What does this fold into?
Amino acid sequence: MHVPVLTITTTTVAGAEVVSGVEYRDVYRRIVRLAARNAAANTLVSVYPNPSVAGTALRLAVPAGSGPLTVTATDLLGRQLFSRRFAGSPDGALTLEAAALGSFRGVLLLTVQTSQGQATRRVVRE
It folds into this structure.
């Protein structure tokens, strides 16, 4: 896979080598770094209904006036199910039609990228 399974990052402090980070991958998937998320955008994004029935549209509440945004859905293995750009929503409401996810059933990660930051929500489709 050409991806390291275990990465250990060290830093030299006062002449001694100190472990500053450990990253382990048991299966390949895209890693989302929590520190890179904007806390304000993260708290303002919600998805409902959750859990939902396959074939049901999803409604997203996004920051009002956030401008253009991208919505991406991946399964838990990191495979991209879809990615769409939207012009934005002045009232903070956005609807993803049922056809966007097709007949997918299971757990997916829905990521909303705005100019204010990025937020990821776990969505269950039954």
Summary: DSSP finds one helix and nine strands in the chain.
